[in-house]
């Protein structure tokens, strides 16, 4: 069998059950886990192939090799398991790892588990098969030997999985509309800004392909800050922004001016240096009446490389700035 779009072909002793589960990360990314399974209830023997998108938030690590090592360590540390052997392996040019264990979890201290894991592009593939005698071990060997990757194993190309997910979302205050790849997290929080610490409003959404975060931040401006010239306001924002964020540092590559709703904004193209490597990111600052808008697109995984965030930036629409106060008659 070779399920369409699954990226693999495999041989099962009978038609497998196909189960789809939803994986959720703490930052709001949801991704599907597809599992193909044949199980014998009486003996506990089973054969499973599963795959799911592997992104920074779901894996906990951006580097593929580190993510693979973590998966292996987690499997080895499982309770009531005795490691028989382990080895690195390659299948169709893709690196993987194999563990063979005896597990008392399955109610049979002679049950032998063979587990294999591969990372291909943005996908994690896992195979598991169990055996408790020579005949069932022969079936396991045949199952593992027949597994092959197909050309679409790496999963959808960048943004292909999200092409129909982008929607417009309006801020709760009604002062802007943003186009985002997922339902955003909305928060009001105290944060450092170019003009000191103050309460800001923020919308944040994440995409799975590529793993990236999109943020709109609204900073309220005091009367004295509204009087700053455009050069002063944007200069203060740029200097503050290039300090970086947490463990991510920014290096300016290029700046440009754009006009949004009749107001001049500044776009910064930067190299964001992350612990797992460098990625290209974009930030935009827009003084707008009594508030300052900041838009940021940041890849969350060095494998994402360059991120095409044009849909996010082109889809942003600020509301009308407040009218100036009317002088008393």
In short:
16% of the residues lie in helices and 47% in strands.
Helix and strand layout, with pairings?
Elements: E1 8-9, E2 17-24, E3 30-39, E4 46-53, H1 56-59, H2 64-76, E5 81-91, E6 94-103, E7 112-120, E8 123-131, H3 134-146, E9 148-149, E10 167-170, E11 176-180, E12 185-193, E13 196-207, E14 212-220, H4 223-226, H5 230-241, E15 249-260, E16 263-274, E17 277-288, E18 291-299, H6 310-314, E19 317-318
Antiparallel strand pairs: 1-9, 2-3, 3-4, 4-8, 5-6, 6-7, 7-8, 10-11, 11-19, 12-13, 13-14, 14-18, 15-16, 16-17, 17-18
Describe what this molecule looks like in 3D.
This protein has six helices and 19 strands. 16% of the residues lie in helices and 47% in strands. The termini are far apart. By secondary structure, it is α+β, with helices and mostly antiparallel strands. Strands 2-3-4-8-7-6-5 form a seven-stranded antiparallel β-sheet, with helices on both faces. The chain folds into two domains: 8-149, Protein Transport Mog1p, Chain A, CATH 3.40.1000; 160-318, Protein Transport Mog1p, Chain A, CATH 3.40.1000. It has helices spanning 56-59, 64-76, 134-146, 223-226, 230-241, 310-314; strands spanning 8-9, 17-24, 30-39, 46-53, 81-91, 94-103, 112-120, 123-131, 148-149, 167-170, 176-180, 185-193, 196-207, 212-220, 249-260, 263-274, 277-288, 291-299, 317-318.
């Amino acid at each position: 069998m070779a399920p369409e779009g699954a990226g693999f072909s495999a041989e099962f002793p009978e038609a497998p059950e196909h189960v789809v589960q939803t994986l959720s990360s703490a930052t709001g990314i949801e991704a599907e886990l597809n599992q193909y399974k044949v199980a014998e209830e009486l003996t506990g023997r089973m054969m499973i192939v599963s795959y799911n998108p592997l992104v920074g938030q779901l894996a906990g690590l951006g580097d593929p090799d580190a993510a693979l090592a973590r998966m292996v360590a987690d499997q080895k540390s499982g309770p009531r398991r005795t490691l028989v052997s382990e080895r690195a392996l390659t299948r169709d040019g893709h690196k993987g790892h194999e563990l063979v264990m005896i597990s008392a979890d399955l109610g049979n201290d002679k049950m032998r588990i063979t587990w294999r894991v591969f990372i291909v592009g943005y996908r994690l593939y896992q195979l598991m098969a169990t055996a408790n005698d020579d005949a069932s071990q022969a079936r396991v060997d045949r199952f593992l030997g027949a597994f092959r990757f197909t050309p679409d194993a790496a999963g959808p190309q960048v943004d292909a999985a999200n092409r129909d997910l982008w929607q417009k979302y309006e801020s709760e205050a009604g002062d802007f509309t943003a186009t985002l790849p997922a339902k955003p997290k909305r928060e009001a929080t105290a944060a450092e800004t170019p003009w000191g610490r103050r309460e800001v409003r923020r919308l944040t959404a994440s995409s799975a392909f590529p793993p990236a975060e999109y943020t709109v931040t609204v900073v309220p401006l005091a009367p004295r800050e509204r009087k700053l010239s455009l050069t002063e306001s944007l200069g203060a924002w740029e200097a503050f922004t290039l300090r970086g964020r947490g463990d991510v540092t920014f290096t300016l590559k290029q700046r440009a001016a754009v006009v949004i709703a009749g107001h001049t904004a500044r776009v910064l193209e930067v190299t964001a240096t992350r612990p797992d490597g460098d990625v290209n990111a974009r930030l935009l600052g827009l003084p707008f009446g009594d508030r300052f808008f900041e838009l940021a697109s940041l890849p969350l995984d060095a494998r994402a490389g360059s991120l095409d965030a044009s849909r996010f930036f082109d889809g942003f629409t600020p509301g009308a700035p407040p009218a100036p106060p009317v002088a008393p008659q």
